[in-house]
Amino acid sequence: MPIDGTRLRILVTGGAGFIGSHFCERLLERGHDVVCIDNFDPFYDPKLKRKNIANALSHPHYQLMEGDILDRAFLEKVFDTGPFNAIVHLAARAGVRPSIQNPSVYQKVNIEGTLHLLELAVRSKTPKFVFASSSSVYGKNNRLPFSEADPADHPVSPYAATKRAGELLSYTYHVLYGISVHCLRFFTVYGPRQRPDMAIHQFIHRIATGKEIPLYGDGSARRDFTYISDILDGMEKSLFHCNGYAIYNLGESRTIDLLSLVSLIENALNKKAKIAWMPEQPGDVPVTYADISKAQKELGYAPKVSIEEGIVKFVEWYLRTFGGC
After folding, report:
1. Which spans in 32-112 are helix H?
2. Which is the catalytic residue, given 62, 106, 138, 159?
3. Cα→Cα distances 273→213, 219, 221, 258, 321, Å
4. Cα(52)–Cα(192) distance, rounded to whole angstroms?
5. What is the mean pLDDT of the chain?
């Protein structure tokens, strides 16, 4: 049982993905019941997602229900299994650049799927809804670091626009039906199980295997990278503080340029990168940088893993898992 004796039943959407699988494990460790839904979309190899949840599947308080958040009948079956104390909505079509090529898929999954879950949360009287948003909603924000008080009405990719729409829909359902909602703006999460198309995972794999890595622009773009364990801490604190409506930045609140990031990976692998310089891409922004003072004050959020430490941890996991090939 949890330390305070209260066992909660929590629905995690996208629970077989990078962040979702880790968070399901965190909830199980805390003694809660977890229902994970995932459609194992082939956006990247579904076998990796199966591997993500291999340990959780044997846990007596874990249930996997395979299906799509666009399938209303499937979701109704999920909610018919019994009441939930909270929904943690991580399922989404991810990726800034792919959203420019195929915006309609992003609109359907990220907006319509979120709407289905909000509707069923109301019907089932689920009191808490934690929504995974993104730092991309800030667009090309000139104010640094990015504050939750800054306007977020100029997204520069369909992905970012759908995430902002999810925040607004969540607010509407909070006002209309009294659901408590936290929208968490994640700042470039990395670590073990990260999607293979994401920059750090891709760079580690390509440097380890002697392949060129693509660097867009001149390498000066800066990102606020957040290690997975810090994101999990923020999510857990948000879930159990969820009351009313709030938006929180979850980042490390420190930036690093891409060339310096590559240097850290080179040092961790003890191998030199081969760089293929590429033009800047539509939808990319020059910097992301989280002001985390609100999350620190209201949630007790306190990131602990620096980018230097995190890269070493990630490389160690990669070498154990893939053997550098």
Report:
1. 46-52, 72-79, 96-101, 103-106
2. 159
3. 7, 13, 18, 12, 21
4. 10
5. 95
Domain limits for position 223 = 9-322
pLDDT of 4: 53
Question: What's the number of domains the chain is made of?
Answer: 1
Active site residue 227: no
How buried is 153 (Cβ within 10 angstroms: 0-12 exposed, 13-18 middle, 19+ buried)? exposed
Q: What is the pLDDT of residues 167-209, one digit of tens each?
A: 999 999 999 999 999 999 999 999 999 999 999 999 999 999 9
The count of other CB atoms within 10 Å of the CB of residue 96 is 20
**Residue 255 belongs to domain with CATH number:** 3.40.50.720
Confidence of residue 3 (pLDDT cuts 50, 70, 90): very low
Tokens for 204?
Answer: 């580690």
CA distance 314 to 305: 12
Question: Would residue 297 count as lying in a domain?
Answer: yes
Give the span between the Cα atoms of 296 and 282, in whole angstroms: 33
Q: How far apart are CA 304 and CA 233, in angstroms?
A: 10
Q: Is residue 100 part of a domain?
A: yes
Query: Degrees (nearest 5) of the Cα angle 216, 221, 223?
Result: 120
Q: Is residue 1 part of a domain?
A: no
Q: Has residue 146 been placed in a domain? A: yes
- Of the candidates 24, 186, 230, the residue with the CA atom closest to the CA atom of residue 94: 186
Q: Which stretch of DSSP H or E encloses residue 282?
A: none
* Cβ count near 104 (within 10 Å): 9
Q: What share of the chain is helix, strand, coil (3-state, %, to 5)?
A: 45, 20, 40
Whole-angstrom Cα distance, residue 203 to residue 192? 14
104-130 per-position pLDDT tens digit = 999 999 999 999 999 999 999 999 999
